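Its record is retained below.
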Amino acid sequence: MNFAGGNTMNSCEMEITFPAFGFTPSDELYYFSGMENLTKCGPQTLKQNVFVGMELIDSDYNRWRILSAQEVEKKEILLRRYFH
């Protein structure tokens, strides 16, 4: 599915070169050392939608925007991102 010049994809479809940084709409900065670090969070973080709207930039300067996050099994989340 195409959106305004980009594609939606799940985290398992992304080819991210780590480390990567995430910038939230509320100006918080997150560091991700690997995919496991990126796709897992605590229940409160998921409930508060901390990842939604985050811009993710990897070491190769690729950019994604996180559109949604959902629990796929206990203590794991599936992130759906907007590809720029």
The chain has one domain: 2-83.
